[in-house]
Amino acid sequence: MGEWIVDFQGRNHSTAIKLNFLWKDRNVFIMDNHRAALWCWLSSIKDHPDVGLFHVDRHYDALFSAKDYVHFPHDDFNSLSIDEYLSCGYDNDFFAVTPLFRWDNYLGLFIEKYRNQVREWAFATHGKGAAPKDIRFAAYEPWEFPAGLYELKGKWIFNLDLDYFFGRMSSGQMEKLFTDVYIRDFAKALRAGLDSGVIVALTVSLSPECAGGWEGTEEVLKLITEGLEIDFSLPASSDLEHSI
Question: Which InterPro entries match (predicted)?
Answer without folding.
Answer: UPF0489 (IPR024131)
